[in-house]
Amino acid sequence: METNEVNQExxxxxxxxxxxxSNKLQKSETEAEWALLSWLYENxxxxxxxxxxxxxxxxxxxxRVEEANRGxxxxxxxxxxxxxxxxxxxxxxxxxxxMKDPMAGINIPVIGWRGxxxxx
Length: 120
Prior knowledge:
Distance between the termini: 9 Å
Number of strands: 6
Low-confidence stretches: none
Shape: elongated
């Protein structure tokens, strides 16, 4: 493979990177948000998921977000989530944020792997 050549193979699996929590959320997180973050640290950080397991992971996170919304004191500002899996050369993400304050959020970068190492 030449230095400038790009491996265009289909993404075979994903790696969930370290959670990024905004300063705004850290300074004012509720107990329900803390519980959600704890669950994410225990179940999502530095984990791998296959492309088949991606949908199950997204549904599990959505269920936890809904649980956190039920436990919030401020019902006027629920949490929302968005998912994007890695495609081609683009990394993906898992994002959870307060609907009234989009700058208060959680981001998990998701990178993909393509194929296996071939000896030269």
